[in-house]
Amino acid sequence: MPDTIYDVAIIGAGPAGYTAAIRGGQLGLKVALIDSSDKLGGTCLKVGCIPTKALLFHAEVWDHLKHAADYGIDNVTEPKLNWTQALKRKDAIVAKHIKGLDFLMRKNKVTVIEGYGRLTGPAKDGIHTVSVFTEGGGGAAGETTLLQAKHILIATGSGAKMLPGLEPDTRILTNIEILSMPEAPKSLIVIGAGAVGVEFASIFRSFGVEVAILEFLPRLMPLEDEEISKELTRQFKKRGIDINTSAKVEKVERTETGVKVSYTDQNGKAQAKEADKVLVAVGRYPRTDNIDIDKTRIKLDRGFIHVSESMETEEPGIYAIGDIVAGLPLLAHSGGMAGIVAVTKIAGRAFRPINRLRIPACTYCEPQIGSVGLTEAAAREKGLEIKIGKFPFGGNSKATIVDSHDGFVKIVADQKYGEILGVHIIGPQATELISEAVVAMDLEGTIDELMFSIHAHPTLSEAMLDAYGAVEGMAINA
Ligand SMILES: Cc1cc2nc3c(=O)[nH]c(=O)nc-3n(C[C@H](O)[C@H](O)[C@H](O)COP(=O)(O)OP(=O)(O)OC[C@H]3O[C@@H](n4cnc5c(N)ncnc54)[C@H](O)[C@@H]3O)c2cc1C
Questions:
Q1: Ligand 1 test: best mutation among 156, 279, 362, most atoms within 8 Å of CB?
Q2: Which of 453, 451, 434 minimizes the C-alpha distance to 442?
Q3: Which of 103, 120, 392, 451 makes a 20 to 30 Å CA pair with 179?
Q4: Is the pLDDT of residue 2 over 80?
């Protein structure tokens, strides 16, 4: 057994794990960060948030170029996709930020260990042991070492769910394969219209690919406010995306040149679509099945781990953060904050538990979506007395300037006191605008107060001010 006893051993170096490691270091804790990959950053940095947002930015530039002549920029001839270059820039962004993480680990004196971590059971005399398997190189057998720590943070993240009987390959893709295809497809079927599905649909449609979406539930982005789904559907249709909701996929087959997806449509009729590739974006599963959870008292809920408000599991001294946590959305920023909460508690400092209703959800498709708190339907289901304000970007001058005046800001507020209960934005920079709503809600802001908070002109954020006003029927620009 080695001599070093860490304050915290973190298994998994995605945004939950690396954020916890950095804050742990800042709080003076001795931290070990274990990851089975030789590159830090997890799903988010390598095959999730960052690469997709890089491609979405490329797609946005492409969309603007389509209107170059309107903007007084002549001689922009037919744009042509250079997919290899698009991937190259995306990869360079990812590589830069992996290096950034390496630097931050050194800066915060975090010991990084490459290997596969497993639990070994409860603590003995207050000390936990993690077994770490490191693969041997060049055909060597590999070795298992034991690492000791006063606390463990499990941050093993999630993987893409597949449809039963399917394995990803060069035509049947998950978020991993689609981000490194040697060539862009001419046609793409996307199964699943959550954030991952609609973002990829948006990217490839901008690049001129024929895109069809098949979604099992009756609407796109089913967790968002219904009006958001409706507006997204309207705008996606306008962009030429073939949308099929209430569609139950029955079979995915490889054809001679591509794929064929058979499904039952909303009228119960058998249908089929063919394309070069299919993206399966039907959700994520928690990576908790191969880390010897059963040697502990940790409770699982369909594979996700139960935690207290300090992120501690039922096994004292073992915490869980990130995508594996039951009841938290699978988002990088909630995982990162969960990590901060856990190490702050471990360091004996005061912390603020995560409030599920204050976590923004952002989808970076075109049009963007940003939301936080209760949807109108959820507020009504809870029996709350509410009032609604809605302001269309059509009345916002900056939206017209940036040539993106579809969409709206919708506010769900408490009827009596005007406290903001939910904000739902679809339109330009919705993913940036939503932060104002999060802070306003965190500070329990009311409509009366926010109607007097000055927003610069001309900005997209003025649409927020107008939406607060709209709750009282007094938007200035509508
Ligand atoms: C295509 C796509 C786009 C996304 N876009 C966004 C976005 O824009 N914004 C957003 O907030 N979220 C986004 N997400 C979600 C986001 O990526 C996840 O919520 C986030 O990565 C979860 O962080 P995590 O640290 O819990 O786990 P992960 O990021 O999954 O990291 C887990 C790490 O643990 C390691 N690991 C697993 N098991 C072990 C083990 N036993 N031992 C050692 N190491 C192990 C893995 O190698 C990995 O590095 C996106 C996801 C996808 C798929």
A1: 156
A2: 434
A3: 103
A4: no
